[in-house]
Amino acid sequence: MEIIRRNTEYSIRALVHLALHPGREVTAAEIAEAQEIPLEYLQKILQKLTRGGFVGAQRGAHGGFYLAKNPEEINLLEVIELMQGKLAMNKCLLGKDGCNRAPKCVLKNNWLQLEQRIAGFLSQITLLDLVKQVREGGLPGGGE
């Protein structure tokens, strides 16, 4: 079972790369090379991150991408939900299109508690936390 999809992992790696290079625009090609992400795939991810308000883009010969928010203002839950949709442990927690057994299901409360714990955990991890890990040598391929 894959919880974090590849495009989400790539988006987090791209955001970390941008956070490691504050004050300047970084090209998609630079991010792709440093983070070992296929360029065409990364360009689609960067578009989604830009539409989501996490990344800004500067066009032109000296253009590139930059963080649109401070790293401490971006948490993993927000990125995951932008890339994958709302976190839900089971379809019964998705609302009107969920399971018709939800009102009498003995598992629903357990799924809800698990979902809340995971969401709480992910929302506490900021981009700044990941940047600190990279700078301390905790992650390979961080770029610094």
From the structure above, extract its key features.
two-stranded antiparallel ribbon, single chain, 6 helices, Arc Repressor Mutant, subunit A, 144 residues, 2 domains, mainly alpha
Question: Can I get a quick summary?
Answer:
The chain has about 140 residues and is mainly α.
Write the layout of secondary structure elements.
Blueprint: H1 6-19, H2 28-35, H3 39-51, E1 55-58, E2 64-67, H4 76-84, H5 108-124, H6 127-135
Antiparallel strand pairs: 1-2
Helix pairs in contact: 1-2, 1-3, 1-4, 1-6, 2-3
CATH-level-4 superfamily name of the largest domain: Winged helix-like DNA-binding domain superfamily/Winged helix DNA-binding domain
> How many individual β-strands?
2
Query: How large is the share of residues in beta strands?
Result: 5-15%
Give the biggest sheet.
2 strands, antiparallel
Strand order of the largest sheet: 1-2
Radius of gyration from CA coordinates:
17 Å
Instruction: Identify the CATH class of the largest domain.
Output: Mainly Alpha
Architecture overview:
The protein is elongated. It is mainly alpha-helical and 144 residues long. The protein folds into two domains: 93 residues, Arc Repressor Mutant, subunit A, CATH 1.10.10; 40 residues, no CATH class. Helix 1 crosses helix 4. The chain has a two-stranded antiparallel sheet with strand order 1-2. The model has no long low-confidence stretch (mean pLDDT 89). The chain is built from six helices and two strands; from the N terminus they run H-H-H-E-E-H-H-H. Strand 1 and strand 2 form a beta hairpin.
